[in-house]
What does this fold into?
Amino acid sequence: MGQTRLHVTTDAAGSDRLFMALEAAFEDDGLPISVFDLDEANGVKEVSLYADDGVDDIERRMRAVMQGIGLTAAVEREVLPDIDWVAKSLEGLQPVHAGRFLVHGSHDRHRRRPGDLAIEIEAGLAFGTGHHGTTAGCLEMIETVVRREKPRNALDLGTGSAVLAIALARLAHIPVLATDIDPIATRVAADNARLNGVSRYVDARTAVGFQAAIFGQRAPFDLIVANILARPLMKMAPDMARFLGGGRSLILSGILERQRDAVIAAYVGQGFRHIRTLWRGEWVTLHLKR
Ligand SMILES: C[S@@+](CC[C@H](N)C(=O)[O-])C[C@H]1O[C@@H](n2cnc3c(N)ncnc32)[C@H](O)[C@@H]1O
It folds into this structure.
């Protein structure tokens, strides 16, 4: 059966509140939630929650969440076709440049230019085609940090398609532990590492946060990159401090501009200092050091 998208149209302030409230309410269900600009000039946004089954119950809970934050708006449904829509949507996507990196699909191999560090990402079920501001921000930050610090082992936590792990491997030729909570993402990550000729560097594993023995075995890391979301990243601050080597760099993304100060504060509390912020749309990417 296809997936159902439950969506609500609202203004910018309403979409922020709804996104956060849904994130909190559905955290344990692990349902994807997204915010999309319907009309950027007029601040009209659409918040979507994707459900595979139990849609009536999820819609009821979604309405209760909206009631809880005093948001009155219609919840609409769209049954998504049972086709590989990710593949379909990627067919039309343009390659993305971020620093020296070029992230592209197989159909755009001919558009690589000399000097590009090309990363080919096949259409798949995992997040990370380079088009999102958080991925592009991380790619840019990775280029700067790797050039300056020459890390010798790295961790990409929340690897998705492995786009960042592949970038690290291609640029620095170093072992990268690439972990994700989602076993499908981990499988896609390993496939993409193979496709890009870096499987000897990229070790894709399934793990929730830092809950696996492999982290202890591979630590301390010279560089950690984590593009997840602000709240889980704040919770992980003590573990990041534990597994990152002294004087080493951490790149964080998946953070909205308005969450930036809170995330920095959580990390300063663990002995980190803020080095640089990159803004991409409403998203920020942080470079921190310990
Ligand atoms: C925004 S995507 C980033 C993907 C890719 N790294 C990129 O930059 O495009 C976040 C990824 O983090 C994973 N994730 C979310 N929470 C996690 C957790 N607690 N531990 C490990 N992975 C997590 C998700 O499954 C998803 O693949």
